[in-house]
Amino acid sequence: EEEEEEKEEHDKKLREDKRELSPKRREEIEAIQRAIDEENARIYSARSKPTTAESAVTQSVDRSRTHGKIIDFVSAKQREVSQKVAKKQKKRSEELLRLIDLDFSITFSLLELPPVNEYDMYIKNFGAANTKQAYVQCNEDNTDRDIQTEEVNTTDKWTQHPPEANAACGGSRASEDRADESTSRINTNSQRLTTFLRSAAQVMAVLIEENMAESNSVKRLRSQTDALSFSDGCIQLNTKLPFLHGRQVSLLQFSQVQRQTLLSVHPPSSKSSAVRLDSETIICVWNIWEPSRPQKILLYESEVKCCCFSPGKVTLVFAGTEIGSVVVWDLREHSGTHLNLVVGKEVWTLRYPTFSTDAVLSVVGHLSPVVSIEPVLATADTSLKSTLTADIDESLGLSFQLGSLDENGVLTLWVVVELHKGNDSGSQTDLGLRPGGKVKLLHSSSLQTTEKSPQDVIMGFGPPVSLQLKFLPSDSNHYFIGTNMVVVFPIEFQLVLPKFYRSQFDSCRPVEVTALDFSPSGEPLFLVGCSDGTVRLHSVQREDPLMEWSGCSSGASILSVQWSQTRPAVFCVLDAASDLHIWDLTVKDYVPFVTENIHNDRVTAMAVFGEPAKQNTFSGVALAKQSGKVEIQYFKESLTVPNACDTEKLKSFLHNAFLI
């Protein structure tokens, strides 16, 4: 095809040339072509018999003779093959040149001539061969001089890293006193540094929470949409977690030292969830200033009936269970020793009890459900220790007493002991202590607090059931037991107190004492809530109540009654009808000051919090809803800031009672 195209082009070109050229020029060209043809004929005739390729070339030459042009295909083919081979070699050489590089890592010194020192230069210029100069001293320049310096004091010192105990360095006996003083100063400074870091971390966490709340307009830190009439703002804890789905809140408990720390008890749920923890009780430790997620998550296999914090800093959590066991969680344990659960993109640490009395102390333990558990305070001012002192005591170990009460009225006293070091392989003697645990309970004593009286047998009442346990704040040797017989039993050792605290109406009718709380202001007063809806104000020295309110709850059982932490004359009452009553005795002492009917999402538990010792006084109430939500309602300033009328009102109650 290419040859035919070339032939057509050639013929076309010749025809054009013929038309363009003059006759004389055309004759000259024809003569030249004839000479070329004759020369080519002589060359081909001189060759031997042609091959197939040569015959093809000859035929093409014969065809082209008529047109005056000869094409040598053999030479062209050879040139084309040579050019292709040359191009491949050139391309290969270029690729190899990019890969081949000279190695300059090895260097050789062709000439190394060290410099000539002054002596060799001198000998080279002025010395003779095989000679060496030397110098001597003839004692002419040996002169004596007198000098005077102060004597240098030397002291031996030693150091060790890492240090053992409190000693990291030492020296001679002369410096022992100074070393001890320096060691104590180091310990004190380290404790202050630890306290500062904890406080700073808390502040930073709160600031981060506030920034997150401000950036998300839907979840503001203090929203007024859910605020009640007595509230100055509302915080909602984030209970929309996978392991809390479908769970209600049965109990709320605030710490008496770190008053922003809250315990929420979530009993086992009948609804199945993505996280297989439906048969276990979950206890969440919250910081209400960080509502986005709980600080700690505690687990137990049985239902938890009551719980409390340790009396000092929030390091331990105690709980009484449905099966009669008492369990302890040490919040200081490292998260690596507990179960880590991955839910979505977050990792949650699930902590099982550090110590449990399950079947280990069955002989001296409880045989019925534990309904109340309280720490025994040595003095009334235990919770008012400074932070530095609390940290020092924590480093030296903690030890205090704990009281637990079951339904049968058995009061058991335990001694909380912290071991010097935990054993990761477990203990062969303390079978209730988990491997690596450092806190355990030792049984101290047991006491039967309630007995069935002959009058109860005659009237057909059943045995008394204990429901509440409280210690007298001014003297921990006195225990107050609330029962189902509308009475409160004080168990005394020193003071002379009434044997019973009864209602002034229908004292023979059996009514359960469902709530009991002492005044935090130091006055000898306590509140009692009953199952028939009555609320009583008692004095410790008087059997009859100072005040008794019977119509506030419309006959619904009282679930919780708690004093305000900042105002002595204010207290809150929650009944089974989900009505929240707030009393302010300085305004009204016969009816509640505020009553909130919360029926759209019923309230199942309540806890009052507040900080009276701070400059920025705050107080409020935590409400657990039936849907599983936990709301923090802050009180208005009128219900928060204390005034002189509060104490005067309480003293007037006491004065009028003893005049009757």
From TrEMBL:
Gene Ontology terms: cellular component: cilium; cytoplasmic dynein complex
Protein name: WD repeat domain 60
Stretches for region Disordered: 1-27, 41-62, 153-185
BP-aspect Gene Ontology terms: intraciliary transport
Basic and acidic residues compositional bias, start-end: 9-27, 174-183
Bias kind Polar residues: ranges: 48-61
SMART domains per the UniProt record, alphabetical: WD40
GO function terms (MF aspect): dynein heavy chain binding; dynein light chain binding
Top-level taxon: Eukaryota
